[in-house]
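Protein 1 of 2
SEQ + STRUCT:
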Amino acid sequence: MAATQQDLISRFTEKYDYHDPEFTPEIAEIVHREIRTVPGVTYSAAHGGIWILARYEHVAMAFKDYATFSSAAGVFYPRAEGAPKFSPIDYDPPEHRVLRSLMAPSLQHEQVDRLEPAVVDLAAGLVRAIAERGHGDFTEQLARPLAIGVLALAIGLSESAQEQIRDLTSQLWARYSRDPDSTRFWPAFRELLAAEVRRARERPDDSYLSHLAGAKVDGAEISEETLHSVLVSYCIAGHETTMNTISRLLWYRGQASLPRSPCRTRTWASASASTW
């Protein structure tokens, strides 16, 4: 018999596990609210056991005490052996501050302003193509290529990398918490990043990637591991959250404004389903 919503809420409140397929965004919202009402901290036996700091005062305390609440072992759980570290969240000071300084140039106001015309052109072209067809999947044909295209503009990624990033990201998250080691998802991603770094060094330009590939810290070249850590963070966080947010905004907007005809309901729901 299928579990009711209340069954799921009770189960995940007692054994929090965001990797479970039944831990949907709707269930998560309720579970997070329930956990925040619990005095103290919450324990979950999932994946060997974790403690959950869900209240503001506990999270604020942890952020100020990295010696006790270290991020250096990785902030995702469980973590496959040999999986990449993500910059800067998987590092403590002083490495954390160094990595933030390496990542800052691509996010500066001047850089963002410079990219605005190209981003507008990209978005307009994607919307125009859907409008001319008269239909489309807003996740696959708008949110996904827009997020990855803007990332490529900001970082300086090749067309080949753009074509591979989404599939490699999906493989990484699908296996990150399930495989005992990273050999089934990380080598292909690492090779993509290594190829992008090689290209930037062989044919340098004014992109952030070229700047990063040639950067030094205290006079020493940055290790390949560090370069990959920075780039994999950009490649994943730089497109996935944006893609999801655009898709969900479109879906919510459609739910609020469009008639509930079967055709239109399926069109907007597909954007949400393919996102989550």
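Protein 2 of 2
SEQ + STRUCT:
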Amino acid sequence: SPGKIVPKGSIGISAWVEILLGKFSFYNPTNRLINHLELSGIFLAPSTIIDGMRKIKNLIEPCYELICEKNRLEERWNADETGWLVHEKIEGKESSKWYIWVFKSAYTVVYKLSKSRSAETIKEHLGTDVDVILGCDRFSAYKKYAVDTEGGIDLAFCWAHVRRDFIRLGKAHDEHAEWAKQVVEVEIRELYHLHANRKNAYLERETNPEEFEKLDNKFCQKMTAFLNRRKEELKNPDLADCKRKVNESVVEHWQGLTVVIADPETEMDNNSAERALRGPVVGRKNFWGSMMQWSGQLAVMMFTLIQTLVLWGINPKSWLTWYFEECAKNKGKPPADVKSYLPWNLSQADLEKLSLRQSNTMGTGPPS
């Protein structure tokens, strides 16, 4: 054994890896993890795990900071946020309601813990001197952020939310169900289908530029037709209020809904960010968030590390074991060159050695 990541601690590397993955990949409460370890003859007190996790946070933090740095340098993100609980009493913070934000990009998935749901969190992470695309829903914080960047960022609004608006209308108003169904299952479905084909053609445009141009023109025409249909309906003074409301939302957010025209690699919706928050939501329900601010910070660090590894097709268990062994060799401190352990700096041989595919689970290799 190369030693321990918590000097003089009673828990070995393999047990720590199981505890961290159990908590931050499978979202189990600490007591459940303790009970599970007892089946293997490992008996631990909650205080032992908590004290060890405080020390482990120092090992993970350099990795987290470098992943955040990489994330900030990318060209487009999908962002979302959800509630999180921090039960520690913090000066100036009356409630235990905090938020976890996610910023998902091509190469990284970053989670941030924040006291608020305001645009300040986005500014703190991405800054205001930007010239990129942010996929998001229509929440006011993103709109405020776009104003503060003075046009430096394009908000790509989510078409899944538009689709949801029409679905909800159809369910709530039987008399308009057929109209809503037509919009969702014919018009919006066709836009999604065309965009998927157009995106593939865009990625292969060097070999077949005519195909991309043809699909691009068709997509633009269908987008314009969708908007014109909504505008025509709004001209009708007898239009039902519920229809008027969803059509007005389309017109109001049209600029953000058409960012996808200028940038074919932008997704039509924000589903990837929403999916990235499902795990933390399960964790919030299973173990009621975090007792202390430091443990909330550890949670977002571990979510970030694990989901970024999975994005690269790397087995988090293999990677954590490898990284912690290096920390143990360094007397319980991070390795001298943490950068060299991050996915985008690994050799092809290391990527294959750490691949999720070896364990026959999900993972598709490095992002293309």
